[in-house]
Amino acid sequence: MLINSNAKAIELPLQATVASNEKFIVKGLNHRYSVKKDKRIDVLDNIDFTVKEKEFLAIVGPSGCGKSTLLNIMSGLLKPTGGEILLEGEALSSTTKRIGYISQTDTSMPWRTAISNVELGMEIKGVSKKKRREIALKLMQDAVLAGFEKSFPYELSGGMKKRVDIIKVLAIDPEIIFMDEPFGALDVFTREMLQNYILSLWEKTKKTIIFITHDLTEAITLAGRVIILTNRPATVKSEYKIDLPRPRSSFDIRYDKKFIELHKRIWEDLKSEVR
Ligand SMILES: Nc1ncnc2c1ncn2[C@@H]1O[C@H](COP(=O)(O)OP(=O)(O)OP(=O)(O)O)[C@@H](O)[C@H]1O
């Protein structure tokens, strides 16, 4: 169902409420970059939305509209020029270990093996050698990476490297995971496989996930709610509940009648923003 939009409401059933707790409140967020002495770029314009605990939220918008800027502000990496972010009611003023961040670029250290890359965050946290090996082995097994523990990043495929990046974050067990176009650089088959991996991960852990993408199909496949941003300076254009059954398969869900209907309706809304 379409919510919070000037567009006509559409008749799609409401999704069952995932959780009543509000994890994030984004209030009147503005951001302006100063690039030169006299040049400024307005990127975010009065952004308001909330994110519930255990929610899988996708944020979709045209290229360059300010999606990464928004996520960087929500993770405490960047201070906004206006507005605020509340994390469980408390103003967020710096980065927090409660949030794990997965980006498009590979973050593995080339001189470390896959397993020692997975262990890196736990090492920094001071987890004992025995414990971190135990956790890393289990995570690698679950991510179908058993047998590649001693491989170096250059010996892994793009999809495998991405799975190492994901479980590196899971190893430190953050409550919230931010993903900024994590599969943007991958081929379509690897992308679909990883979407399935993320779907099962969310089913298992029910972590709060915010997933940034410019791919509407990916957003509808994964999320329980999709927020559409306008062109820069980005504002929230609309929100859609994604009332598709779970567990989902990224390979099959896109042929579901309801998926096609949702895609069509959301695309009607998004296409005017895509130049
Ligand atoms: N550090 C910065 N200084 C100045 N301008 C910036 C900076 N970071 C981003 N921008 C500009 O802000 C705008 C929004 O960038 P941002 O990366 O947030 O968009 P995006 O929606 O994530 O883009 P894409 O989908 O292409 O990754 C762009 O015009 C970009 O050039």
TrEMBL record:
Q: Gene3D superfamilies of this UniProt entry?
A: P-loop containing nucleotide triphosphate hydrolases (3.40.50.300)
User: What keywords sit in the KW lines?
Assistant: ATP-binding, Nucleotide-binding, Transport
The GO terms describing molecular function are:
ATP binding; ATP hydrolysis activity
Tree of life domain: Bacteria
Which Pfam families does the record associate with it? Answer: ABC_tran (PF00005)
Please report the stretch or stretches of sequence annotated as the ABC transporter domain. 26-256
InterPro entries named among the record's database cross-references: AAA+_ATPase (IPR003593), ABC_transporter-like_ATP-bd (IPR003439), ABC_transporter-like_CS (IPR017871), ABC_transporter_ATP-bind (IPR050166), P-loop_NTPase (IPR027417)
The protein's name = ABC transporter ATP-binding protein
